[in-house]
Fold:
Amino acid sequence: MDTMRDRFAPVVTRLLDEDPRVAVVLAEIGADGFAEAARRHPDRVVNVGIREQLMVGAAAGLALTGLRPVVHTFASFLVERPFEQVKLDLGHQDAGAVLVSAAASFDWPAGGYTHMAPGDVALLDTLDGWTVHVPGHPDEAETLLRHAIAAGDDKVYVRLSVQSNQQGLPVDGERFRTVREGRSGVVVAVGPLLDAVLAATEGLDVTVLYATTVRPFDGAALRRATETAGTDVVLVEPYLAGTSTAAANDALADVPHRVLGLGVGRRELRRYGQIEEHAAAHGLDARSLRERIGSFLGAATAA
Structure:
């Protein structure tokens, strides 16, 4: 199976050919995938070199001229390093762009902590007006990329990962999807963690919601689920643990409830192994998730 990032350059290249508003801004990473597109559209495929702050600033400038810039590099260099430009050049100027990241929280462990960004969604959450897509499969990534680029002049973040579920599901860029119904709790699985959550909750009497768009947070779907499954909620996110806890609390503010936020821990792992080892170390493998979800929801979750 190809990866989400394998889909990125071909999809955006087709959109460059089809839509004269689309532009691409790179900082070396990913440039090879756009070599032919750059020959066909030299004015709309821009590689600024290893200058991530300039990359975001250039994208904002293109947006202010009426173009729809797609900006791509690793998440740590796309959100964290040029955060001031994301905040000011895009946010303060109300300029729209599509930020498309790679490497996610720990997709390339050999690259070390400089190439990991578990705090990216939480950091964007300090800003107003961002839509955040977290696909869990290459098919979903393609759908959400097209949705994001077509979304007028909005500010959109698309978080790509080499981690993937076995099968893609229909996604609409807005709502959570119910994939399992139960009566003793709600588990929200985000993006590529759906398969692990389904394995972890096998035989448990819980509702599982699947989220590939986390901002805006679909509080209405969560409320509907709690009407039959109860108001104990577990959030399982492939980035910093607790990133969406406040959003879930806000959705259920008028009813007694409990929320457990699971995700990447704050403790830095200084021994870089394989992706699966990092997932297990953060308690995001199926076995660990079953223990943590079961402990929180209690024995009543047994079907």
Q: What stands out?
A: Residues 4-159 form a domain with the Rossmann fold fold (CATH 3.40.50.970). The two ends are 34 Å apart (CA to CA). DSSP finds twelve helices and twelve strands in the chain. The longest strand covers residues 232-240.
